[in-house]
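Sync notes, pocket subgroup
Present: LS, DG
LS reminded everyone that the earlier model was apo-only. Rerun requested with SN-glycerol-3-phosphate included. Inputs:
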Amino acid sequence: MKIFLDTSNLAMINTWLQTGLIDGITTNPSTLSKEGGDPKKLVLAICAALGSRDVSIEVTKQSAQDVYKQALEIAALAPNVVVKVPCHPTYFPVIQRLVKEGVAVNVTLVFSLLQGMMMSKLGVRYISPFVGRLDDIDVDGSELLCEMRSMIDHYEFDTQILAASIRHVRHFHDAVSFGADVVTLPVEVLEKATQHPLTEQGIAKFNADWHKLGITQFP
Ligand code: G3P
């Protein structure tokens, strides 16, 4: 299981890189816009901080021709860039061309098993099912992860499932339980997932019992 951070905030990225838990970053036009400033400069800094680990950067153009051109420009920014392209039929010819030309592609805004199957047929590196946004419309997003796992394993596709739009720890749990290859997490969800009240209580109890010994030097 690979853990990506779903943020464009460089300070947070650098903080969490220290834990050794982070295998990549996903950004999107919304998270880049939230940081303000020059997005190209920020993207280059994030890619440098990640070293060889994947950084997903999304296209922002609309027409197929413009998306193809922009995708190549984004891919050229750094060797660890993965280009994010929305799962829309307008871009299917672009996606297959990018894959054929060796560009790493993360197909985003995936909401159905059939979308995921078609993109896996094209050989993209990642498909990003948006679990939280499906839950928002009362569709079981975690169930889609389970179906996608079976589909990819059955047809022996190489595409990786990148569980995205993770709203809470339960989604993270389901992504692990249903065998997603990658989960991309907002910082607040990852923070919550690292904590457990019984661990806190256990540490306090051990400390209190140790304190009774009155030993200051150990070992
Ligand atoms: O970055 C892609 C995805 O994780 C966005 O999630 O919360 O905007 O639905 P969200």
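DG: The chain has a mean pLDDT of 98.
LS: The longest helix spans residues 197-213.
Action: DG to write up.
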